[in-house]
Structures are given as structure tokens and as C-alpha cells.
Amino acid sequence: MKQLLSLLKPAVCVLCVIVLLTFPNPCILGAQNGLLLWYSKVLPVLLPFFILSSILSNSISFSPILTTLILGVFCGYPMGAKCVKDYYLQGYFSKSTATKLLCVCNHASPMFLIGYVCTMQLQGRLPLSMLLFAIYWPPVLLGLTFILLSYRQNNCKKEAEASVVVYPNSYQKNITLDESIEHSLLLICKIGCYIMLYSILCNLLLTIGAEMENHLTIPMGSLLIPFFTGCLEMTTGIATIANVEAPSILKLALVTAIASFGGCSSISQVKSTIKGTTLSMVPYILSKCICGLMSFLTILVLVKV
To answer: What pLDDT, on the 0 to 100 scale, is given for residue 261?
Structure first.
């Protein structure tokens, strides 16, 4: 089994090289789109917050949970994960609390939902209040569930005691501005690489899907390929679904579900952000799948009503 796994990585690399050589134009276009998205939308929004949050989390210990929730909700992926990691490594959060916060505070930002999803792609076909409600009520319910479970298990006192932990020697509490900039630049560049790679995959999927539709009749084919594209990278998927010929209610529900789920690109960004901790990604991935499904059903119900 280990020998098989050791051969899998080089085999995948060889396959990727073959794909790049076979489909050069879609790959180049996908890389351009991904890097342009990162440079024009992600970099100017997230980098200042990354730098400030590093300094804030290492200098001010006032209400780490509230700080994490506010920055996570208003700044979008993967700002919440960065705050969770910083406070977790400093001992403000226990592993259980950090895992729960990771599930609750990583979502698409209101600016992205208002400007890109509602205005640019849906063009007002879905009321903004309905979109925001469908996106944010599942994580709110999830957070309330975590709180109730904590009370039922009588963990409140244990969590309070676990939060008073000696700072690990491997993590510097007093971080300088230069160190904050260095760490933030490394993280934002890694995020840019993930966006570029998933953008290439999306463009390849759309190209292959278009060729398949010319030769095969696929049930719900007009939405199937765009949906899988959105599961990879939500920005490309949302734009593709919003412009295909399909029932309006289904398009609105799928766009909302993808915005709630965030796509594999966002999951990879969160995973990269919490690298160096003992936090598991499994609860986070499950929570995003649940939130996406709940948002999908919410739009179906509200639009029909």
C-alpha cells in the first residue's frame, strides 16, 4: 500500500504535465483568470487584514472569540481560519473550541455576496436579504448547536480552564511588523497559487464539458458541468451557472449553495492556513457540505413561497 501511494504522486504529476501539453490554451487562460482574480480581488482585500490580524492577535487578548467571528464573517475566506490558528497556538482556544470556530467563522464575505454574486451575476434576480439569510443562517444554527452541546456536556468550565494555557515556546507572542508582513505575504501567495490551480481545473472542466455536450446528450448537462466547476472554485462556478439556460429557481438555489459551500479552492486555502496545528479538516468539510445543502433548500423554499 505504501509503495502504491509513493508511486501515486509522481504519476499524478506526469498526468498533469500531459494535460498541460495537451490543452495548453485552456490551462494558460485558466492560470490568467486565477491570477487576475487573486491580484484584483483577493490581494488588496485580505493582505492588509492578514497583517493587522497577526499584530492584533499577538498583542490584544480581549475577546478572541468575538474578534475571530467578526473578522471571519466580514473578511471572508480564509481570514477566520487565520484568527483561529493564531489564537489556538497562543493557547486562547482549546482544540475543541478552535475546531468549532473553524466551522462557524469561515464564509464568503458580505462584500463578495453583495457585489459579485447578487449584483454582477444574479443581477437582482434574488433579493439581497434572501441571499444573505440563506448563506448565514446555517452557520448561525451550527454555532448555536455547538453552544447547546457544550452546555449539555457540562464543558463550559472545562473550556474556560483549558483556555488559560502557557504560551507554546514555538510560537512568538510579541510579533514585529516585519514578521507579520513576512508571514502574511507567504500566506497570501499560497492562496494565490491555490486559486490559480483550481482556476486551471475549472477551465479544463468547462472545455471538456463543452466538447462532451457536442457529442453526447447528458441529463441536466447544462447545469452539471457548471455545478462541478463551482464545487472546485466558487467564483468561476457561480458565473457559469448564472449564464446557462436552465430553470431560474434551480440556478438561484445552486448559486447560493456554491457560495455557502465555498468550493474546494476555499477548503484548500483554509487547510493551508491552519498548517502547523493539530486541527482536523474533517469537521470543517462536513459543516460546509451541510451549510451548502441547507442554503440550497432554503432558496427553493423561499422562492416558491
So the answer is: 93
Asked if 94 and 65 count as a contact pair (C-beta separation under 8 A), the reply is no
* DSSP structure string for 23-62: SHHHHHHHHHHHHHHIIIIIHHHHHHHHHHHHHHHTT--S
- State the Cα–Cα distance between residues 31 and 88, nearest whole angstrom: 34
Which sequence spans correspond to the domains of the chain?
23-163+176-304
Among residues 253, 242, 206, which one has the least CA distance to residue 225?
206
* Rounded-to-integer distance, Cα 11 and Cα 17, Å: 10
pLDDT digits (tens, 9 = 90+) for 189-204: 888 888 888 888 888 8
Cα torsion for 75, 79, 84, 86, to the nearest 10°?
-120
In this prediction the pTM is 0.80
Helix (H, G, I), strand (E, B) or coil at 63: coil
> What is the pLDDT, as a whole number, of residue 161?
45
Helix (H, G, I), strand (E, B) or coil at 117: helix
E strand or H helix at 278? none
Nearest to 88 by CA among 163, 161, 150, 146: 163
Q: Which tens digits make up the pLDDT trace of 107-137?
A: 888 888 888 888 888 888 889 999 999 999 9
